[in-house]
Amino acid sequence: MLAIYSSFLASHDLQLLVLASLISLLASYTTFSLMTRLYAPNSRYPWVVATAIVTGCGAWATHAIALLAFRPGLPVAYDVTLTLAAGMIAVLGSGVGFLVARSTERMALGGAIVGFAIGAMHYVAMAGVQLPAQRSWDANTIATSLLVGASFGAAALSRAQLMPNLRGRLISALLLTTGIGATYFVGMAALTLSPDPSIIVGPNTFGLIWFAIALTSVVLMIVGLGVVGTLVDQHIGEIEATKRELEAALRLADAANKSKTTFLATMSHELRTPLNAIIGFSEVMKDGIFGRLSERYRDYATNVFNSGTHLLGLINEILDLSKLEAGRLELHEENINLAATVEECMKLVETQAQQSKIRLSVSLDSDSIWICADDRRLRQILINILSNAVKFTPEGGQVRVSSFRKDGGLAIEVSDTGIGMAPEYIPKAFMTFSQADSVISRKHEGTGLGLPLAKQLVELHGGTLAIESEVNVGTTVTIVLPPARIIAKQARLATIRAVSV
To answer: What does pTM read for this prediction?
Structure first.
């Protein structure tokens, strides 16, 4: 063994061997830096390609520098085809190895494939070395070199997967570099050269200078890929860190939102009990059930009753929104007459409309007059929309309710000739505790709960709610219920007979 080692050093330039080792170490470390991306949740095949190119070209460059260090005492040239083929074998074989190694259970197998590919590259490249000499190879030594390369490759990839930090990458790079060097060392020990002047070097070769230029280009490419890969990896690491921070913030926000929903639901229940008492007693006082009050105190009682009723309505809306956000609001569906529901809702806003001299009108599709819905929630939807329409319509305007078939479903449309709003404010109208325009909010009282609540209740029915509006022209709110909500004529007649009985 010592004789083989002494012979190896005697036939090689030691400085070039050191350079080959450094190039191999650089390429190997770059390989394992890129390799960490192969096992990320969102890894892509370009990382496999980049890793295979760095590994294969690094091994080829190491081997090429070692060949430049080789001093056989004979003129040497290099076959272009076989030299290039050796590099392709190293790249493709490494690519296959890293594809296999993307599965943790096959890490060692993938590393062995990489090591075997480097060994195959060595012998193809050696076949491309042209010199006037007869060659003979020892089969057992060749098998040993391939086994050594595969073993170190398996160890390097396994260690990189177990320790994907800086220390792990350095250890893995040393293992792979050792494997590449040992493959070359043992492989060269398998070769015996016998000078033969009769052997003529073929024309398809290039000399030492061109070989050195090609080698320099490959080394520069490895360094470039290493720098680019490091920068890209750093950028992706920053993106992933930001993503993790955003996900953590989203979880905190979701938890805070759930806490808020629970708090609102609890407080709404707690507030409704004393409010019901305030409303009940103030109603008794304003109506003079137990004796008439003076005009002043009756007005006070009326103000208390109206304020309490308004506050109770607000609390009920908050409670409904809380239930909707928590997914705890259930529909109590029944077959209802849409015309009767619309008529009752119109009566509730009629006094407000008359005070502003606003004309109310209704035009319903007779074929869709019966629907399956939660009557209380449908009234809540329509009253919220109608109240807004009347509130934002100037004196002498018009509010109209109509229905018609749309895409097989039922569309209920509430249109007004009010102040309208610009298109960019429409999304804001669906935000809770918000109004479309701050100027409007100062002129018209409102909590900003009506439309968001109506939209969510419509969606709970499987429908959609949309707004079309134009400043100083008016607003149209369209509710579209799915076809399944429309009751067929036979079921409608049965419902009518059941009600009459």
So the answer is: 0.47
